[in-house]
Amino acid sequence: MTRAVLGLAAGLLVACSDPATTASDGPLEASPVVELGPAPDADLSPAPDVVVPVDQGLDASTRPAPVWFLHITDLHLGASSYADEALKTAIDYVVPVVNPTATLVTGDVTDDGSAGQWSAYLAAIQGKVAAYPLHLEIVGNHDKKGDGKGFFTGTQTGLAGGGMYGLSYVDAAQGRIEIVRTDTVDSTKALEQLLGYVSEDQVKDLEALPPSTVPVWRSIVLGHHPIDGVQGLKVLGTDKRLEQLLTHFAAEVYLCGHAHVSNLSWNKTTLVVQGPTLGKPEIAAPNPGFALVALDEEGPAARIFGLTKSSPAAVGWPLVLITAPADAGLGGTNPRAKPVTPGQATLTVRALGFSPGGIVAAEARVDGGGWLALNGADKPLWQGSVAVPAPGKHTLDVRVLAPEGAGTHTVSFSVEP
Question: 4, 23, 285, 381: least surrounded by Cβ within 10 Å?
Fold first, then answer.
């Protein structure tokens, strides 16, 4: 498929999207969710830039970030009835309640890459998720089983002509968000697919793509494999190539999966969110779930939330994620978290709360003290301020109240002497 054809496909896709705001490239007409049409020819070249505006009720001129994303990985559709249940819960309940900027699926959508499993995936999401790139997928090692071509006909990314890797853009009120889609299964060798491999050609292709014509506010890189660990890219030495991409695109977050065990860590100043398996809990990785990731002016925030292993798979509502202040203990030690400076009287607090019944109230407290009400004028964003405590290390709790019960999130911060 030629670049010209890919560009045409991208233009048609954007025109058929369901935007709630106006993109920087000009106004777009609103229309229903795109129907999944015939598959394009398989093309391994980087995808064209695709821009879709999104509105979550936040006005950057009067309110700060955050924007937020739903990260799911390792669905393994077809592995068991639980995998089907977990995907249904995610699509039918989590996505509409969380209403993310985009849903980012980091591979192993299917368990064996068969045509039946890809068809089941499309049937599960058809008409229930936003058009690509507001719901997009990258490839995992299980997805390349069989003839390896099911990704092109069984995902929104593939059907949009996205190829195995490329760039997508989403325009939120806070600015343009760049999504870098990598293929960490970039090999025909089974061992390299299992352990993860990023080729030199892929890195060169991605770095050679022209930069966005609009300034990028934040950049997110997606890959199936972790960077470190016994199931990570470091085993075969291609972690350095992935790290090169993180640096090139100034990535704030790297989202991945593969290991089925969740973990939050840092690669220099990039937050690495290794999501749990959504659909294949096992003895070694018994806790299925998903991740919420937010981008705020003070840095990224992320939490892992679990699913029950019952039928149907259930979520422990309500969900809460503090996005400001930046959590000094996020992923071990957060290199982006800045201490509160002397003379600052109040500390800004921002948190996201989600519940099917709606969040009715949110409160914050410092070091286990009295609860102070937060303003929920921009639900699900709740914000307010607390008095800055004495110099030293402190904790901040945010509690949200919903018909389903209460949810709490705790972060740490420090105040300079």
Answer: 4
